[in-house]
Amino acid sequence: MNAVIPQTQDDSRARLDALAEISQRLLERCRANGADQAEVSCSEERGLNVNVRMGEVETVESTRDRGIGVTVYFGKRKGSASTADLREDSLEATVAQACAIAKYTEDDPASGLADAELMAREQSEFDAWHPWAIEADRAIDLALASENAGRESDARIENSDGASVGSSESLSVYANSHGFVGRERSTQHTIGCALIAGRGDEMQRDGWYSTALAAEDLESAASIGLRAAQRAAARLAPRQVATGAYPVLFSADIARSLIGHLIGAVSGGALYRRASFLLDSVGTQLFPSWLSIEEQPFLRRGFRSSSFDAEGVATRESPLVREGALQRYVLGSYSARKLGLQTTANAGGVHNIAVSSNAGGLDELIAGMGRGLLVTELMGQGVNNVTGDYSRGAGGFWIENGAIAYPVDGITVAGNLKAMFAGIEAVGNDVDLRSHIRSGSILVGKMTVAGTD
């Protein structure tokens, strides 16, 4: 664990009060300018990031950012403007600009605030605020300790891509003319290390990182470096495999990208533009009947926990997939109106997503698959959201007789996402908690693996 220095003074609530007061003044100005509806977003962020490489400090960056966004509606005409300047004349000009833009836009029947009766009535923080009073010198020491632990652990680690430590605080207020005022504060801290094993044409790079809302939940700097070294060294002397159709096991940190493709395909923007391979799929069996996917916006220390979405709509726990069948889409109020549906409280994106498992950890999945490919890295953007066609460069390990046989790279895994979803044979319980998408490793029964002919 990393030592956490307690904050001597936490002024975050006072700063939220100030942002809330600004939002109310702006809403009043919008009303005075004749807007029928208005919404205001105010944010403030602070951060520290350090990077080291080969025992030397490369960058130390301290950041402070803020932003004010104003959106007005004149009937069904919408205008938006933003500023980072809190002076009164700048705020006044921002409102005037938003109103001027609205007067020149076309009517859009789907525009407007989310319905007033959907606004969140209660708000909670879900234990998301854990400032880390870390000075630059201490952050540098942690980054160096991570890199040194990895470099010193294995003689084959001859180079480094660097180590980093980052810490950030974020405050935000969303308010609208329904009378809703939502306040949120959160922190996030990260330690990462990337190392290079071997030399010349035989070099292999890999890394590891830990990220959490509270610094005490981070893995130790040394353990991150050690794991980065192990991963890089394990990739030395890779081979290719013969082109064919094989079981493919996506490690947990890679598997969540498959769930991300599902979410993108059932999100409102793709649907009302008719640019999704999952059009008209609610109620359709997409996955095996044992698999379910839940949205869980109220998780303690969840990366996307919130009582309300980006429009102030109250969030709720609800299934996205139940017993393999798609239960709903992922909608904000605008996309919902375009589709003739109701918002699912997903303006701004999904909250925490949990994928059910039916198997043990990664070792058990490897033993059970017998022969096939374990994917630990994906490259490229070869996913067609309209057709569901999937083709990605990949690296990982060949599995033979239920055990890792050797590393592989320079290959491509291909299929169609619909068939991949339906062909999932197992989801492990080795859940990667470093994201708002919480999934274990995913075994797809058969995919095309393109290697040597």
UniProtKB/TrEMBL annotation:
The Metalloprotease TldD/E C-terminal domain, residue ranges: 243-451
Swiss-Prot/TrEMBL keywords: Hydrolase, Metalloprotease, Protease
Domain (Metalloprotease TldD/E central) ranges: 130-236
Metalloprotease TldD/E N-terminal domain location: 38-102
InterPro entries named among the record's database cross-references: Metalloprtase-TldD/E_C, Metalloprtase-TldD/E_cen_dom, Metalloprtase-TldD/E_N, PmbA, TldD/PmbA_N, TldD/PmbA_sf
GO molecular function: metallopeptidase activity
GO biological process, one term: proteolysis
GO annotation, cellular component aspect: cytosol
SUPFAM superfamilies: Putative modulator of DNA gyrase, PmbA/TldD (SSF111283)
Family: Belongs to the peptidase U62 family.
Protein name: Metalloprotease PmbA
Source species of the chain: Luteimonas gilva
Organism lineage string: Bacteria, Pseudomonadati, Pseudomonadota, Gammaproteobacteria, Lysobacterales
